[in-house]
Amino acid sequence: MSFYGEGIPGVELSELTGRLIVIEGADGSGRSTQIEILRDYLENKGHATVNVGLRRSTLVSEELKEAKEGNILGEITRSLFYATDFADQLENRIIPALRAGFIVLADRYIYTLMTRDIVRGADREWVRSLYGIALVPDLVIYLKVSPPQLVERNLRKNSTLDYWESGMDLGLSRDSFDSFIRYQRMIQKEFALLEGQYGFITINGNLSVRAVAREISARMVNIFGE
């Protein structure tokens, strides 16, 4: 296991005997469902698992939630809020779990945070250095779903489109539907670039839940040999 950059001081990488598996994708891509399926699959094979995700830090999660609800976050403030949330979870949840030999299942990781920042105009090198503390996962799977399908799934689940997931803060369109489509296309374009840079696997998230789960479980053979 290794860090993308300088990492966190004092961490002995040889002690991290667990595995880090990441499922990426937009809201409505089926990430949470696939995380649950994968968790059951791994636990049935005798592996202990821990779940992590964005905005779950006990340090800043509530403050970040409140700030997002006000739709008033500036770009740099938003970036640093999420980076703090990630760093806290990395140090206090992910690394201890890996040290204990657990499989950490991450419902999104630094890649979503990076793409969000970049499409909002953040400098690529600044973003890369910001997340140089991150551990390199054993496997990253990106569930790519067409923007129109994402709209349908989000409306079916929530009856509305999220302000931030629609990119309404970017002024792309006054219409939330149109803004959502444009924003998600921008995000997917950045993910395509990151795929080449970070070597993760893209799976067609438009497929059925079972079909996606089969593709993910097939990747487990390369990691666990089972």
UniProtKB/TrEMBL annotation:
Annotated GO CC locations: cytoplasm
Protein EC: 2.7.4.9
Any Pfam family: Thymidylate_kin
Uppermost EC category: transferase
One annotated GO biological process: dUDP biosynthetic process
Single GO molecular function: dTMP kinase activity
Domain spans labelled Thymidylate kinase-like: 23-216
Catalytic activity, as annotated: dTMP + ATP = dTDP + ADP
Keywords: ATP-binding, Kinase, Nucleotide biosynthesis, Nucleotide-binding, Transferase
Role: Phosphorylation of dTMP to form dTDP in both de novo and salvage pathways of dTTP synthesis.
Similarity-based family: Belongs to the thymidylate kinase family.
Annotated protein name in UniProt: Thymidylate kinase
The organism's taxonomic lineage, starting at the top: Bacteria, Pseudomonadati, Thermodesulfobacteriota, Desulfuromonadia, Geobacterales
Gene that this polypeptide is encoded by: tmk
